[in-house]
Amino acid sequence: MVVGAAAEGLVTRHTGAMRRRKRPDGAEARSRAGRSRRRGRALRFDQRLLRRGLELAATDRVLELGYDDLETPLLLVSGTVADEVPAPRQVVSLRPTVDLVEELQRQGASGRSTPAAFEVRLADTIPATDVGSYEVVLLLAPHYLGNERVRTDIASAHRALRPDGVLFFQTHRRQGGETFVRYVTERFGHVELLAIRGGHRLYRASRGPEAPASASDEGERETVVLQETVRGLTISLETQAGVFSRRRFDTASRLLAETMQIGPADEVADLGCGAGLLGIVAARLAPQGAVVLLDNRVQTVALAKRNLRRNGVANATVQLSDGLQAVGRRTFDVIVSNPPLHEGGVYRTTPAERFVAAAAVHLRPRGQLFVVGPRTLPLPRLAAPHFDECEVVTADRVNVVWRCRRPPATRAQESIPMLE
Length: 420
Ligand SMILES: C[S@@+](CC[C@H](N)C(=O)[O-])C[C@H]1O[C@@H](n2cnc3c(N)ncnc32)[C@H](O)[C@@H]1O
Description:
It contains 11 helices and 19 strands. The chain folds into 2 domains: 2-219, 3-Layer(aba) Sandwich (Rossmann fold); 222-414, Rossmann fold (3-Layer(aba) Sandwich). The protein is of the alpha/beta class. The protein is elongated, with a radius of gyration of 23 Å. 46% of the residues are buried. The chain has helices spanning 25-39, 47-53, 72-78, 98-110, 147-160, 177-188, 251-259, 277-285, 298-310, 350-362, 379-383; strands at residues 2-3, 61-65, 90-95, 117-122, 134-140, 161-172, 191-197, 200-206, 223-230, 233-240, 267-271, 290-295, 316-320, 332-337, 342-343, 346-347, 363-374, 389-395, 399-405. The structure holds S-adenosylmethionine. The site of S-adenosylmethionine has 21 residues, from α8 and β12.
């Protein structure tokens, strides 16, 4: 049930009923990417909505879950959201990827001195020590990570709040809004619509006087174990809400896993490893070699580590890394990747472009990059500045696997420039 509205527009009744037909993961992801591409905007708090609806006290401790929005936490700590919204006592921002944390820390540090204490943490769950410790949680619905992930975040927000603490929650009408309001209603018992602007809505829900029941987020996370055969190998993968292709092995990843060429003693990097499918297959194909799996998300790194153990893989490690940054100057015989094709829910080829450029720097002479992507991905054009040679290895109706090769050694290549 939705009560009250203090903004332009009329109160919309949210019955919570969801009539849209469920579509397979891939179709949903593609249509989300298509809609986001048309709008071309990443997920952000709408500052005008916050100005109209947000209420804070100077004594508040605020938990801010804003994904790729790096502007709002800085406005909160500096007390410049609106004249009547003071800087709270402390703002804690959680970000799920290492690059977002570094960028927000950099911007926070370079900003002028602010009245509020500010802490940025690499995390996507609420630690037990934080349960029941915030007066306010400010949450963006990360629609592009899927409904289950948003539901988990709402549960985390509920757990993080002190008795009578308040959640401020922003959704978009066409990005799961009705469903997410239903989730908040289920958890908090009620939702109040504060402000509407365009498709965006700002809601408030109060936690109620009872103390938090559970000390951990983990129980909220639905874990699925997938088992499939790839290249004659049985691979078992644990996945969770918010992780790429969590219901089945992705068809593009599978195409790459079936066709990537890896020698028995190769050193291999799996760039953007997700739950670890490509890295695990690579490790099995290179029993005398070594594999490093890299991902920028704290959640997938933890999963990939568990999946190495689950599959008895001893010749591979997992590292949290923005691109190949964490490997320093290490080079590889082969790099494999199913690169991300969006940033903050918006379709972009920039991440793939960055992956290809970084791979070129970290491949040995004659080293090979195997990349899979949809036919629409202009991989040869993205790779042209970095590789002389790129060819199609295989393709199905939707996806293509490309191989780009480094030339034999030249004197110039003996010292590796750092690209990232
Ligand atoms: C399309 S998924 C592929 C996952 C996995 N390799 C598979 O095939 O199932 C892309 C992965 O890249 C990761 N990623 C996105 N940006 C990244 C970055 N800057 N550095 C490292 N990994 C990144 C995402 O977290 C995601 O797990």
